[in-house]
Design brief:
alpha+beta, eight-stranded mixed sheet, 4 helices, 10 strands
């Protein structure tokens, strides 16, 4: 057994599978008052079938991620939980305080014989370790015994409210924490209505990693 891992800070965001992305975004924007941080449609990400709209009510990149599968998905999942194309919970995300704490949690989960479904990885289109997706968080994913998705992460992006872009000082501080030069990369561009947040990264990340 591994040592007891550091305490989780909080439940920071939830991912919800939705049947109609436009309708769901309109509800969380117009009724609940959330703001869009990034959005891409099903088919825009070469490594997964779904589209996602990341929405926020605070300074972080997102508190809610709305996850839409293509209408023709009809997937036969290799596993349960997050890969089932059904409306409902996709995952719940717990925040930890640092990369070291994240790695301690990954070791703890493995020590219980639980398979890590994805990660650890960096959700970024510009970070040198990035996987081409969004949010800037370093994360890994697994399932509870009922098939519910769980994410443990650190370093979710702080957003600049004026530019609707990842805060540049936060981004460069984060590069430094990761042992990289502060100018090793630039923050991703701000999302623009009608333009996929994956547009610039899609070609770069369209080939499988070697």
């Amino acid at each position: 057994m591994s040592k007891t891992p550091p305490a989780l800070r909080r439940i920071q965001h939830v991912g919800l599978k939705v049947h109609d992305l436009d309708e769901a975004v309109a509800f969380y924007r117009d009724v609940m008052g959330l703001r869009v941080s990034d959005r891409y449609e099903p088919g825009d990400n070469p490594h997964s079938p779904w589209g996602i709209c990341f929405m926020r009510c605070g300074e972080g990149h997102h508190e809610v991620s709305l996850i839409a599968y293509p209408a023709e998905a009809g997937l036969t999942p290799k596993e349960g939980g997050m890969r089932k194309p059904e409306v409902g919970l996709h995952h719940v995300a717990f925040e930890v305080g640092s990369r070291d704490e994240l790695e301690a949690w990954a070791a703890h989960i493995r020590s219980h014989g639980i398979r890590i479904a994805a990660g650890p990885l960096v959700h970024s289109p510009t970070h040198p370790e990035g996987d081409g997706t969004l949010g800037e968080n370093r994360a890994f994913y697994f399932h509870d015994p009922c098939g519910n998705g769980i994410e443990i992460f650190c370093d979710l992006a702080r957003m600049d409210a004026d530019t609707n872009r990842v805060d540049e000082m936060w981004f460069r501080d984060r590069l430094e924490r990761d042992g990289l030069p502060r100018d090793a990369a630039d923050p991703p561009p701000a999302w623009r209505p009608g333009v996929s947040s994956m547009a610039d990264a899609k070609e770069k990340f369209s080939q499988p990693s070697s």
